[in-house]
């Protein structure tokens, strides 16, 4: 059966075009739901793990990728990402590598409790002076740069086959916009990057030629409670 790239999954020789150019796929996975009953904007804070539903989401994504010729799995160092990567790697008898380039974006609201009053507080207004940068956190250009470097590293390690990177919503969405040549500034509510989703980049050699998207845990999203815990989702 054809795979996400329209080609049959190959368990043997690496994929290549007729001229020998390697064909590589990198699946960029967002972590599953996090246990966060206090609705803290956890950002890069340690100690935030997948909920039971998040673990189910991770298993659904692992099943979705189980038939793929994946040879490399790398994750953000944060717990929720590593826990999402674990069943994916296990399905292919691989270890999970970690890469700090895949970590969550920096944000001045990290550690605060999410509520509408937070955005109306005059103490926070200075953080919203430039939504194009953005002024409340790590610049989009810096996120795009580090994610592109992580993507190129994963592509090189899996050349002719497939790799998985597990990261966070804003870094993944910024990466996608960069690969597609779109402006990096955007509204958070318009991101196509749900929990445990898979954004796949198809490479011909070193050139990204197509981006695809899937939601293998889509049937579980209606049950999700914590969908706003990442500090990257704060915007005016």
UniProtKB/TrEMBL annotation:
This is Broad specificity phosphatase-like protein. One of its GO terms (molecular function) is phosphatase activity. The lineage of its organism: Bacteria, Bacillati, Actinomycetota, Actinomycetes, Micrococcales. One of its GO terms (cellular component) is cytoplasm. CDD domains: HP_PGM_like. InterPro entries: His_Pase_superF_clade-1 (IPR013078), His_PPase_superfam (IPR029033), PGM_Phosphatase (IPR050275).
């Amino acid at each position: 059966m054809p795979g996400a790239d329209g080609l049959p999954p190959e368990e043997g020789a690496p994929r290549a075009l007729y001229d020998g150019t390697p064909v590589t796929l990198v699946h960029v996975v967002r972590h599953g739901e996090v246990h966060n009953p206090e609705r803290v904007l956890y950002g890069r804070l340690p100690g935030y793990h997948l909920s039971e539903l998040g673990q189910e989401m991770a298993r659904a994504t692992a099943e979705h990728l189980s038939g793929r010729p994946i040879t490399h799995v790398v994750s953000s160092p944060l717990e929720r990402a590593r826990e999402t990567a674990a069943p994916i790697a296990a399905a292919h008898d691989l270890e999970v590598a970690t890469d700090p380039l895949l970590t969550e974006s920096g944000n001045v609201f990290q550690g605060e409790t999410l509520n509408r009053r937070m955005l109306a507080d005059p103490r926070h207004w200075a953080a919203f002076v430039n939504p194009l940068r953005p002024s409340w956190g790590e610049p989009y250009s810096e996120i795009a740069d580090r994610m592109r470097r992580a993507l190129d590293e994963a592509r090189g390690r899996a050349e002719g086959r497939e790799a998985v990177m597990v990261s966070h919503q804003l870094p993944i969405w910024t990466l996608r916009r960069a690969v597609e040549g779109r402006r990096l500034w955007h509204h958070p509510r318009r991101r196509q990057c749900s929990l445990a989703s898979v954004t796949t980049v198809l490479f011909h050699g070193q050139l990204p030629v197509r981006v695809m998207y899937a939601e293998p845990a889509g049937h579980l999203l209606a049950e999700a409670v914590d969908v706003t815990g990442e500090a990257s989702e704060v915007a005016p």
